[in-house]
């Protein structure tokens, strides 16, 4: 019996979710035809062989992610779960996502500039002043500072979900130092090798030029338009959970991988120490949070950053991507105002809509949320990675009570959202297809032009019934194929 037929008899426990591959009657969506046919033909034993080969390649190449848990004495480094049934997106769907992400990033970048300059959006009453000045990620050091090329958000990851009707919504914006690029590129390499014929026959849009676009975006930030700038990737070091990605990107982009101790501040410039002496650095792609990048400007006990970096930055002698202070635009409370930003700065209607969101500083919305916690998702505004969340429908009475007390104590610290019925896609479990909830992280690169990497990274909640897709919470990934026709 084929894998596909084996799976159909028990694939759904209900039909209340949108499925990426199957219609409600289990007919296959046209853009999944070739994928479904292939996986319907391959024997489970052959699939297991390919899965083993894939896992072995990931281990050999060090494609890992570090999990931290309060139940463990030591962090656990592991290969990220990778499911080899690709997610397939038809061209017309992707074209709409591409336009929507570009629009959103333009508005968010304009907002970030405005907040650190005239604050027109505050003066005009679109966003409350308190939401900005009390924001954890607002950096007074950036006020009045003009950033290179006016680009605050060089690299971003916009998380999208689909509801039960197949409509796309933006779940959140990741604008500080979004991760997942390496899994996107390595996943494509592995899939194109292990399922070569399927990949070639599926007319998948290439992502090869996206690395060049990434490098071009960084180069465009170089002070004085320097044609051959020295670019470094600043990492916290090998103990960081995303260190594999840091090494991968530095290698693929042809830039230097450095830690804070490799850089030195002198005469309002930043220099790289190497065997040739001191070499002037033009652009720093940082994968370190704001508070750690310069102990003289932010957290004084940080050993990860570069003392004096902000002085060089203010002098216009080095560019930082993403710019310090961009976190003010991806705060989960500010997220609720992005549709208003699009209308305000661009004079356009949003192409991609937000998940319905409640601002808990508003008395009426707070009271509604407190009365309906068992139905909603609550998020702490300053946290990410699946931390600080309450998923009401699956929470215990004790968890709901604890969140209710926390909201009453400090309502501005939280937002609440409608619990969305995340779409599902098939993953292969022991040779049989099984549905799992997914989202999509769409990556945008802003420089002289804005480039959205075709497909992005599909993240998968590997536990049956779970809605948490974050790698830090045990989620996995899929390669995402955007069809070219």
TrEMBL record:
Q: Which Pfam families match?
A: CP_ATPgrasp_2 (PF14403)
Record's InterPro entries? ATP-dep_Glu-Cys_Ligase-2 (IPR051680), CP_ATPgrasp_2 (IPR025841), UCP005522 (IPR016450)
Specify the superkingdom: Bacteria
Q: Which residues form the Circularly permuted ATP-grasp type domain?
A: 86-461
Protein's name in the database: Uncharacterized conserved protein, circularly permuted ATPgrasp superfamily
Organism annotation? Paenibacillus algorifonticola
The lineage is:
Bacteria, Bacillati, Bacillota, Bacilli, Bacillales
